[in-house]
Amino acid sequence: MTKRGPQPGQSPEQRAQELKRRHVEARRRQTRRRRTWVAVGATAIVLAVVAGVLTARALGPWGSGRGPAASAATRPAASSSAASASAGEAASPATQSEPKPTFVVGRALGDVRALEDIGVRRAGGGAEKRGAASISRRLVAAGAKPETRTFRLPNGKTSRNVVARFPGSTRKTIILGAHMDSKAPSPGANDNGSGCGALLEIARCLGQRHAYPTVELVFFGAEEMIDADPDHHHFGSRYYVKDMSAGARKNAAGMISVDMIGYGPHFVVRTMGNGPQSLRRLLMRQARERGIHLSYLRDPGESGWSDHEAFELAGIPAAWIEWRDDPVYHTSADTSGHLVAAKVRIAGQFVLGVLYGMDAAALERLAR
Ligand SMILES: [Zn+2]
User: Fold this and answer.
1) 0.85 exceeded by the pTM?
2) 284 CA distance to ligand 1 centroid (A)?
3) How far apart are CA 119 and CA 102, in angstroms?
């Protein structure tokens, strides 16, 4: 070991110089240490800010996760190995080993506000078309390959459905539907931005991990009445069912319309009551098992009150889930401000849980 210090035989000048040299060296060491700590501190602050921003985007508050950019930042990029796919099919493989994603209501509400900002989305109008484009972009960000299918309304206008398919482990398919149009003068936050937002959040979850059944998300155009004729509604869903191939009909295990899930004290499942009721029974059983109070309400009158109608009439197990009553639906007060986030979350997580919980036996039971 070597001790530093004045060596025997040094002159006073040499000793003074040696002391000065040691002093300068000590100062330099101190400065270096200080710089290191400043650098470490600054790095820590930058990391904390980045983590904070990412967490805020992932969780929320109400609408902070808006837009494809936000969701892309919180989600691993979809790989393309499962791009088997006919048009409209998702590219994401999403292996079963991934943990089941959770329904993030803040992101769904961001989608609702994007539709609300477009304004009243009359069937066959420009705003409905812009709503469809916005939904398509968000589906692409979720890893899907959405397809837009146009159809003619009796008044000569053109409306459209946006369809995105998430292949599962079987060709048996659960169809989830939500209509994009709104009834003037309503900007349609609850009716039915809420259903569209829930389906988009479910798309983001399915982009991360697929369900056992294949899931087809359909954003319907022209659900609302377009004139005084009481039968002039549900055009998107009627067109979709009419357009189904024999194979698609055979594989359609069930259809759930998600329509108005953002407001009201009563959580209900509704059908016309004249088609197969197996999906309604499955939903009620699943709700009971999860401690959710879900009651049954039959649509009054001859026609269904949402997009499940055409499916039920075609003999496909179909049901509509809804929170009710919303006193401001079809009015200009149907804005995102009156939505109750917890309602959207309960309904969205419920549907997602039903999809992820569905196995071959459950699909078999639906067919009976
Ligand atoms: Zn509606």
Assistant:
1) no
2) 21
3) 29
